[in-house]
Amino acid sequence: MRIVMIGAGYVGLVSAACFAEFGIEVVCVDKDRHRIEALRAGRMPIFEPGLEDLVKRHVASGRLGFTFNLKSALQGAMAAFIAVGTPSRRGDGHADLSHVFAAAGEIATALSHPLLVVTKSTVPVGTGRRLAAFFAETRPDLKIEVAANPEFLREGAAIEDFMRPDRIVCGIDGSGAQALLEALYRPLAQAGTPLLFTGRETAELIKYAANSYLATKITFINEMADLCEATGADIEVVAKGMGLDGRIGGRFLKPGPGYGGSCFPKDVQALLHTAREQSVPLRIVEAVEAANAARKLKMVSRIVAACDGKVRGKRIGVLGVTFKSGTDDVRDSPSLVVLPALQELGAKLCVFDPAGMEEARKRLPGLTWAQNAYETAQDATALVILTEWEAFGSLDLDQLKTLMHTPVIIDLRNVLSPAAARARGFAYHSIGRPK
Ligand code: NAD
Ligand code: UGA
């Protein structure tokens, strides 16, 4: 069986390599020539644990190939997955479907046989129907079915999530699609993963509902953390106590500087846009979006307060720019709000991140970039932890203290132990834990 994966980004590349692992022949197509050339030369365009080994193994097995030529890739393929970006549209914040429809247009031009087109990208409800209408109009001579197969992987755990998902959701509108998708996902179904077949609109909405629900859970715990700070309770224990209730579950109850990343912020916005179009109020999701945006700015005030109310001219060390650990992705990271705001207030920032600095340099001009975590602490008035990289949790606090001008840590991810930091003489501020 042979398929085409359009888009060699976080979702496309991981999905292509994992389908190859299932024994399927996959041709991964990207319009970015540099990306394809890098992949052909064995270089990964993104940082994702385990990806390089998996890709190299399946290039060697002959089941995974890379090209920018969609026409040749489509020859003999039974399905084409669209895994291109759907960022926020400038102006109104709805999902920008220009890449999806560009890919569809290229398929319509290049295709010479019947095909199943599957959206793996996150697309607003109704997109599958629009794509089906588009193919019916542009290629009435061919049977082109359209299915929605939203992806639920997380960056940093992408391969594990793809290979051991909680469920696979397939939205279909036709008989051929189900049999083909069942065949593609057979190894996972055999391992016990539920395959949920639904209508296309339902599948599309499941994806947005799931992401918005997870964003809600995070925002809820962040507000509870504020209440813990006001009352002397400990958010880590509150979250544990809540999470032990099986109806709530302990995951996604980690407080922090607000959710970021290439998906939650844009998907929450797109869902709200869909709801407004349909005149259906989503009051909870509206509140989540507003609370999360406000939270990122609140982190700035918190840092300023920990620096005695003033950061102008002060050197501040910053650990982490990626939106979470385990990825090089800085899209919609809290750092993109917090760091420019501190710069604006006159702080001199020295920043380190184990994986995200290359991309962050392009988006955050005017910062000093360090080679390692200790360098950021040199002469610093305060050290801010913005991303929960494991290595930041095991820094040598004594060494940091000798390097710093003033021993102040603002740990926005609760990676350090308050007792250990305070025992070494730090003024230690964290999220939702007793002072
Ligand atoms: P990405 O930006 O990392 O990758 C998209 C790739 O598609 C790029 O390499 C780009 O060059 C390529 N591309 C764009 N148009 C193309 C075309 N016409 N032909 C060939 N290639 C083309 O994006 P991503 O993070 O992988 O996200 C892709 C989709 O998956 C989005 O809809 C996103 O919401 C969704 N999603 C992402 C994640 C995640 O963790 N990143 C998880 C689940 C779902
Ligand atoms: C998220 C979802 O978890 C995936 O299921 C989904 O497929 C993906 O979006 C998508 O649609 O693209 P991802 O953005 O990679 O995955 O990362 P998450 O681990 O969900 O983290 C998102 C943000 O929430 C990060 O900023 C993270 O720091 C924050 N977060 C997460 C918390 O603050 N607390 C938590 O308990 C969990």
UniProtKB/TrEMBL annotation:
Gene3D superfamilies: Cytochrome c1, transmembrane anchor, C-terminal (1.20.5.100), NAD(P)-binding Rossmann-like Domain (3.40.50.720). Residues 317-418 form the UDP-glucose/GDP-mannose dehydrogenase C-terminal domain. The active site is at C263 (nucleophile). The keyword Transmembrane does not apply. It comes from the Bacteria. GO terms for molecular function: NAD binding; UDP-glucose 6-dehydrogenase activity. NAD(+) binds at D30, R35, T86, T122, E155, K266, R331. It catalyses: UDP-alpha-D-glucose + 2 NAD(+) + H2O = UDP-alpha-D-glucuronate + 2 NADH + 3 H(+). Its EC number is 1.1.1.22. The keyword Mitochondrion does not apply. Pfam families: UDPG_MGDP_dh, UDPG_MGDP_dh_C, UDPG_MGDP_dh_N. Pathway: Nucleotide-sugar biosynthesis; UDP-alpha-D-glucuronate biosynthesis; UDP-alpha-D-glucuronate from UDP-alpha-D-glucose: step 1/1. Keywords: NAD, Oxidoreductase. Belongs to the UDP-glucose/GDP-mannose dehydrogenase family. This is UDP-glucose 6-dehydrogenase. It comes from Arboricoccus pini.
